[in-house]
């Protein structure tokens, strides 16, 4: 089934009820092999009286009451997810509430965090970026100077490499499991522009990026990536970076594991070899069953997750359910997302919501009619290279469960007869 | 705000058409000149900021420290989180032991069992430890405490004195334990029908 035809049963008809009937007929017909009688149950009546809303009877809050807006007080669940039992919160993470969100842009205040030495408070007037090493002209930039360079904006996801663990206990919600991924519009100057400004020497092969945090976070980056699509970012979703996202400037390496997009960027050191920092030897290396470890495992491979319905949620009643989720790949655009509602026996292509952007979250939707029976639903991303998201047993078979990082396996959700959704791997 | 000399230089080229044809603002005056934004970093500024220590010992400072002094530094600065002998705790990683465990179901990753380069130990301790006061140790203290951690792993003698030469020449047990990224390493065929046999 092509992506184009896949959209049509649901999207063509302007009449919502006919759209629904056609799509569910197609779905159930395909699944059961027979056209079902779609019994039209009586539409339940609304509450006995629907009074005119009080909000229409008096003026609302005056303009300017909040000079920086915030979510409705009724939306208390859309907050970052932080493990309450960590021994310390200096080198730790918080997760995006994936199950509470719609769309491909993560609100800046809900963007996941992974810090190695806490969140520094940096005065941008005092911050400097130094570029040195194998360049003709070592340079120092102020933040204002960086903003003078030609400016680029792009939408990219960022994902921690340890999202999620290979080991039990597995998480309960989409956020517990894969909340270390977020996506934003980033604005900054191409790193290539800065490297050109300093003029690379022919021996330049790697660039070591360092943060101005208490971890002095350090990673070595291949020069090819630096010249391809790396950005030195100063804004996220249109406003200046938040402190927890690297204010006043951070690196962004689209598709690479998140820790390499060094926050609070203060130094770029051009070398002919990687520096083998602690974060690329002792950590962020993938230990295999034979005792050897994979090093410089940069790219995040294709992945997807159903965010609705997902763990911790409940389907209110049998009937129409739009399965919704997110897919992404560090290697480019998402080409297809397959969805299974029968435990992985059969799969169908879902609808991809535009825009479908390279190295960005992509939203998918799949119309389903839940019959009230226990079921297992899951999604499987395919990217433009043809790579298909693996199942967990495939990864475990190849890598064992000690590798810590780059678990991009299919996430099944188990749906009970009462509609409760739980982790299908647990 | 002063811009760099080369920006000024390009204003004297004279031919706007020529400058545009080069595709950059002011290429003719100096090949490396693009926008003329920023300031040259002096060698002293670079030296003051550059913390990076490479496996070849590049940028390791002069000086040295003894394992015995390192024992004192460790007790005062590290043991609260990492344990008196680097056995680890709720806050700090286990630093010693674990050799021979990497291929077992319960690998123990420590400086001695896992880290490929001793130079990285100096780099990391100097930039990031102790957690509550990074960059507070002197270079001599960092050499000494690095030596003590290596001693805890059986890699240096109790009476050793550690310098740039020591860290550069020490071959760590897991030096050859790392491989490059072989991914994609698993292949899902993307079966669509009757996929569970």
What would a concise description of this structure say?
The complex is a heterodimer of chains A (426) and B (197). By secondary structure, chain A is an alpha+beta fold. In chain A, 14% of the residues lie in helices and 28% in strands.
Tell me what you see in this structure.
The complex is a heterodimer of chains A (426) and B (197). With 426 residues, chain A is α+β, with helices and mostly antiparallel strands. Chain A folds into 3 domains: 3-29, no CATH class; 92-284, Oxidoreductase, molybdopterin-binding domain (Sulfite Oxidase, Chain A, domain 2), CATH 3.90.420.10; 303-423, Immunoglobulin-like, CATH 2.60.40. Chain A has helices at 3-11, 16-32, 143-148, 174-178, 191-198, 223-228, 392-399; strands at 92-94, 113-115, 128-133, 139-142, 152-159, 181-190, 206-211, 218-222, 231-236, 239-240, 250-252, 265-271, 286-287, 293-294, 303-308, 319-328, 334-340, 348-349, 351-353, 362-370, 375-383, 413-415, 421-423. In chain A, strands 4-3-12-7-8 form a 5-stranded mixed β-sheet. In chain A, strands 5, 6, 9, 10 and 11 form a 5-stranded antiparallel β-sheet that branches. In chain A, strand 19 and strand 20 form a beta hairpin. The longest helix of chain A has 17 residues, at 16-32. Residues 1-39 of chain A have low confidence and may be disordered. Chain B has 197 residues and is mostly helical. Chain B folds into 2 domains: 1-40, no CATH class; 51-169, Cytochrome c-like domain (Cytochrome Bc1 Complex, Chain D, domain 2), CATH 1.10.760. Chain B has helices spanning 5-10, 16-21, 43-49, 67-77, 79-82, 118-128, 139-152, 164-169; strands at residues 39-40, 64-66, 161-163, 178-179. In chain B, helix 4 packs across helix 7 (139-152) and helix 6 crosses helix 7 (139-152). Mean pLDDT of chain B is 88; it is low at 5-32. Strand 14 (293-294) of chain A pairs parallel with strand 4 of chain B, so a sheet runs across the interface.
């Amino acid at each position: 089934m092509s992506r184009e035809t896949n959209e049509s049963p649901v999207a063509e008809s302007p009449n919502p009820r006919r759209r629904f009937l056609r799509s569910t007929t197609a779905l159930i017909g395909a699944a059961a092999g027979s056209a079902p009688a779609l019994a039209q149950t009586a539409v339940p009546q609304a509450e006995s009286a629907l009074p005119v809303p009080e909000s229409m009877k008096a003026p609302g809050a005056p303009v300017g009451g909040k000079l920086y807006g915030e979510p409705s007080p009724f939306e208390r669940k859309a907050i970052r997810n932080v493990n309450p039992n960590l021994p310390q919160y200096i080198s730790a993470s918080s997760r995006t509430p994936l199950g509470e969100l719609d769309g491909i842009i993560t609100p800046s205040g809900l963007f996941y965090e992974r810090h190695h030495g806490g969140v520094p408070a940096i005065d941008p007037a005092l911050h400097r970026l130094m570029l040195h090493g194998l360049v003709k002209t070592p340079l120092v930039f102020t933040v204002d100077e960086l903003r003078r360079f030609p400016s680029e904006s792009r939408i990219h996801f960022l994902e921690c490499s340890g999202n999620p663990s290979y080991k039990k206990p597995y998480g309960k919600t989409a956020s517990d499991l894969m909340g270390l991924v977020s996506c934003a519009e980033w604005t900054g100057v191409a790193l290539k522009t800065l490297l050109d400004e300093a003029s690379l020497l022919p021996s330049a092969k790697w660039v070591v990026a360092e943060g101005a945090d208490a971890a002095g976070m350090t990673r070595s980056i291949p020069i090819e990536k630096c010249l391809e699509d790396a950005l030195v970012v100063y804004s996220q979703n249109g406003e200046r970076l938040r402190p927890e996202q690297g204010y006043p400037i951070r690196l962004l390496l689209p598709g690479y594991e998140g820790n390499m997009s060094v926050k609070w960027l203060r130094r770029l050191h051009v070398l002919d070899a990687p520096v083998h920092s602690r974060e690329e030897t002792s950590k962020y290396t993938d230990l295999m069953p034979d005792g050897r470890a994979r090093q410089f495992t940069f790219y995040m491979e294709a992945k997807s997750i159903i965010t609705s319905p997902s763990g911790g949620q409940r389907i209110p009643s049998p009937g129409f359910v739009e399965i919704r989720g997110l897919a992404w790949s560090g290697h480019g655009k998402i080409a297809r997302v397959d969805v299974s509602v029968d435990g992985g026996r059969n799969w169908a292509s879902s609808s991809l919501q535009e825009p479908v952007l390279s190295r960005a979250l992509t939203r998918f939707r799949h119309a389903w009619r839940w019959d009230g029976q226990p079921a297992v639903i899951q999604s499987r991303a395919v990217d433009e290279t043809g790579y298909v998201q693996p199942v967990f047993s495939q990864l475990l078979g190849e890598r064992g469960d000690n590798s810590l990082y780059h678990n991009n396996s299919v996430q099944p959700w188990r749906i009970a007869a009462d509609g409760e959704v739980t982790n299908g791997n647990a | 705000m002063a811009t760099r000399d080369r920006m000024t230089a390009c204003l004297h080229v004279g031919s706007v058409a020529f400058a545009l044809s080069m595709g950059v603002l002011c290429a003719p005056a100096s090949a490396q000149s693009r926008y003329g934004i920023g300031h040259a970093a002096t060698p002293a500024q670079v030296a003051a900021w550059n913390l990076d220590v490479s496996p070849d010992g590049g940028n390791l400072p002069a000086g040295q420290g003894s394992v015995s002094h390192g024992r004192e530094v460790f007790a005062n600065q590290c043991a609260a989180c990492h344990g008196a002998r680097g056995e680890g705790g709720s806050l700090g990683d286990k630093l010693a032991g674990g050799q021979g465990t990497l291929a077992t179901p319960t690998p123990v990753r420590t400086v001695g069992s896992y880290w490929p380069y001793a130079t990285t130990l100096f780099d990391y301790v100097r930039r990031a430890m102790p957690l509550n006061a990074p960059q507070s140790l002197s270079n001599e203290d960092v050499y000494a405490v690095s030596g003590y951690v290596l001693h805890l792993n059986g890699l240096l003698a109790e009476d050793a004195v550690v310098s740039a030469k020591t860290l550069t020449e020490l071959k760590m047990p897991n030096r050859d334990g790392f491989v490059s990224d072989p991914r994609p390493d698993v292949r899902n065929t993307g079966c669509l029908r009757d996929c569970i046999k």
